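Handoff note, outgoing to incoming analyst
You'll be picking up this chain. Sequence as last confirmed:
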Amino acid sequence: MFRYFERMVDPYQPYRDSVTPSRALWRFLADHLLPFRSVLIATCLFTVAVGIVEIGLIYYVGRVVDLFETTPPADVLSAHGLELVLIALFILLIRPIVQIVDAMLLNNALMMNIAPLVRYRAYRHTLRQSVGWFQEDFAEGNREPRVGRRQQDHRTDQVDQR
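Most recent structure output, in case you need it:
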């Protein structure tokens, strides 16, 4: 089950590596996150679904209180038993599935693959550079290992703001 989500995006897939990465943040993110488009859309949809389920449960708690208030205690199961069984099945089956898929998309499909993809592309870009580029860059230090982690943190912080 984990393997399916972890392999939704291959961080080492071929790409146009002849282009210099953009210096603009949003263009850089868009270029590097293009393989994650469908996973990002699915993650957003499942995050919204989790929110709708949770809000629906808050609404339904109010409905149960109203049912108990308007129905005599002896008649609650006979009048509303099927409804209560269906909501119990929903809480026990559907709600965990939606939350598990949401967590798997976020943690296994996105977070496991964003940093390796950015690092792989950064290293591929580094391999194409001349010796002079390295001499100039050593004065500032090598920043590439941190780039993938920063992009992963930035993207997951945006997704987590639900």
